[in-house]
Amino acid sequence: MMVAEPSEGVLSVRGLRRRFGDLAAVDGVSFDVHPREIVGLVGPNGAGKTTIINMILGVLEPTAGTVRIAGFDLQRARSTALACTNFAAAHAPLPGNVTVEQNLRVFGLIYGVKDLSARIEALLDDFDLRGHRRTKCGVLSSGEQTRVTLAKAMLNRPRLLLLDEPTASIDPATAREIRRRIAAFAASDGGGVLWTSHNMYEVAEVCDRVLFLSHGRILLEGEPGALIREHSAATLEDLFVSIANEPLAAEGAAP
Amino acid sequence: MMRAHRVAAVVLRQIYLLRGSPVRLLPMVAWVAIDIVLWGFISRYLNTVAGRTFNFVPALLGAVLLWDFLGRVMQGVTTAFFEDVWSRNFLNMFATPLRISEYLSGLVITGVTTSLFGLAAMLTLATTAFGLSFLPYGAAMVPFVLVLFLSGIALGILGCAIVLRFGPASEWLIWPIPSLISPFVGVFYPLSTLPRWMQAIGHLLAPSYVFEGMRAVMAGKGAPVAQLALGVGLAVSYLVAACAVFASVYRYSIRTGLIARYSAENVS
Q: Do the beta carbons of residue A98 and residue A52 sit within 8 Å?
């Protein structure tokens, strides 16, 4: 069994490419996510964010490149690598025909969570779901379903947490609470977080580092405040809009 | 290496679904019970027409029971898989440490368990209402049931592979598979009744040896051991082949991204 190198990030992506026919959806992307770090993956629709997340989750094979999670090569040690991660995505709600507690128990078993009952109880409290534990997920509101998905994503205290637009379609107060919990997860459990979002205020507030993606390539990378200053933008959203409108900037893409 | 807790998770999800909805429990026994009642009365009627020359109860009702059993095993496996199709759960399931062998094992355990409920209902009804007895078959029942179990599981896994490859709309292709096969395996008649090309297909199908064996026992010739062994061998090879097909389709789905966008019914 391979052992993670101490200096290696919880996620190491190298030369990742994915083609769909003639289209290069992801075109040679490399980056790392380190413990306790929240990295924002942002870009316009079709930039390749979800394609990257799907490749990291092992449900889409890269055309080229490698993904290592906690030191484990995803291609060679898929199950071991995926045991170190977990995810929540707005487009992948948990099955609506079983209850909150049942979903958490099923996925807790899949991830081999120790002392599962106690972990479920803690997450029901953390995500304010105790009153819904016997409610079928399908009848919960969008915000409640998001909280259940996030509770699932925290079940195994993942070393790498992948979040694909976790706060999409939920109200600002709930979104703020979710951001607080994810930041607390990174700080207390020491996991790294890769977060895609279209909400630049959210990204600026939560993320330690941002990767701007366009046409499948990373165009900019850095700490949100520093990027705003370096590009003389008023806000991260202004920077996002200017980059999204200038696809030729890909000429100067980061490696 | 397979992990029991992951297999248990797949089974547990199915238990939760069955426990939470009686609608899922009813079809396990309802359709097979209707078949037994229908064929029980047909057999009884044919006995009155034919007099004492031939007993149709074991020949028809026994055959229906065994064939329905195979169908229940197959549907048990596919229905468990369809639960993940219907609830768009592929991304949640396959982006986890769960291995394909663990997932399939969970589906098979679920399918076998649920089919046993159907078998119990059929046996109860057929023996109490129509006097069907499997005692004359003796130890031959073991390979009979084994072949049907293995064949049903293999068909179920093959059905899952077809739906995974071609999308949720291909579900309608799966349900009629047992009906499609039944003419070739001689459920109600000897294979010799069929034209040569159908016989050739029939000899390649493991369940044929169960029904031929059943008729041999009824005719007082004893169970054809070599033929049943061939049936078991064929059924095992089907199961191995079905698992290989599913694994191949799964790898294809990962390579093309089909799993990630499965709910779009894209067959790329």
A: no
Taking the CA of residue B99 and the nearest CA in chain A, the distance in Å comes to 7
Q: What is the tens place of the pLDDT at every residue in B203-239?
A: 999 999 999 998 888 888 877 889 899 999 999 999 9
Is the CB of residue A1 less than 8 Å from the CB of residue A16? no
- Domains of chain B: which residue ranges? 74-114+134-264
Backbone angles phi, psi at A11, to 5 degrees: -135, 130
Q: Calculate how close chain B gets to A19, using CA atoms only, in Å.
A: 10
Q: Which residues contact B32 (CB under 8 A, 6 or more apart)?
A: B68, B72, B118, B121, B122
Pick the residue from chain B with its C-alpha nearest to A21.
B256
pTM of the complete model beyond 0.95: no
Q: Measured between alpha carbons, how far is A59 from A163 in angstroms, rounded to an integer? A: 15
Write the DSSP symbol of residue B91: H
Q: Are strands A192-196 and A38-42 parallel, antiparallel or unpaired?
A: parallel
Contact state of A94 with B259 under an 8 Å Cβ cutoff:
no
Q: Per residue in B44-70, pLDDT tens?
A: 999 888 877 778 888 889 899 999 999
Chain A contacts of B9, Cβ < 8 Å? 106-107, 109-110
Q: Could you give the domains of chain A?
A: 21-84+159-255 (3.40.50.300), 95-157 (no CATH)
